[in-house]
Structure formats: structure tokens, C-alpha cells
Amino acid sequence: MRFFFDNNLALRIARAIDQLVDPPIKVHHLRERFPPNVADVDWMRTLAEDGDWVIVSGDLRITKNPHERHAWEATGLTTFFLKGWMNQSFWLQAANLVRWFPDIMSQAQRVEPGASFIVPFKYSGRFKQPPLS
Q1: Whose CA, among 19, 20, 56, 125, lies 20 to 30 Å from 29?
Q2: Edge-to-edge strands of the sheet including 2-5?
């Protein structure tokens, strides 16, 4: 299983989480595969063509912008949206993602591809559903 962290998350956090997980799980950051200014629709389309990706995104606008939402839903990829994370410091994001990541991995393995979840910043061990279109 491959996890993809978007540009809203620090490359260093993705690399740190990748070092913490056991193979065959891998964590990749957007900048390791695409230019930093790639459009969301473009990287989503490419990941969908590859298959077997789980997206971890700090960009909740994807769920609200009709064009991006349609592209994201069309991918059929499982996605975890981090809500309330982007206004936190780098170190708090890193620490909290280390705490949440075992739950994210477990949930991603249990669900059908295309499922999506909101991951609140405050750790509860429970995911929420993103708003419907």
C-alpha cells in the first residue's frame, strides 16, 4: 500500500513517516513525483492511473471546489483529509500525524477503495465523513 502526502504537508514529515512504517507500506510526498506547482487535478489523475494509492491531504478545498471534487471522486482512491491541521506548527503536525498514522493505515486496509475520511487534529481515534457534494 502506498500513501501519498500532498503539498500541504511537509516533505520532511512524509519522509519521517516513511521511515517509521514497515514494508510493504511506503509513504511518498507530492514533490518526490511531481513539480511543486502541479494542479491537484493532474496529480490525482496520475495516481488514479497508477492505482493502489491512499491520499493524505491537508487541502479540504478539494471537497468543496466542484471541479476538484469531481476529479477526486473520479479517482476511486481512498483519501484522508486533515481538518484543522494546517494552522498548527510543523512539530505539532508531525507529532500528531505519527500518533494518527497507525489508525490511518488500519482504516485504509479495511475499507473499499474510494472511501474518504476527515481526520480531526485532536486525536480521538475516530474519523469523520467529508461533506457530501
Answers
A1: 125
A2: 26-29, 2-5, 53-57, 78-83, 116-120
Cell 500525524, located at residue: 97
Domain coverage including residue 21: 2-120
Contact partners, residue 113, CB within 8 Å, separation at least 6: 76, 77, 78
Q: Judge whether 25 lies within some domain.
A: yes
- As for how many domains the chain has, the answer is 1
pTM of the model as a whole: 0.94
Q: Work out the number of other CB atoms within 10 angstroms of the CB of residue 49.
A: 9
- Burial class (CB within 10 angstroms; exposed 0-12, middle 13-18, buried 19+) of 120: middle
96 within some domain: yes
Q: What is the pLDDT of residues 53-98, one digit of tens each?
A: 999 999 988 888 888 888 888 899 999 999 999 999 999 999 999 9
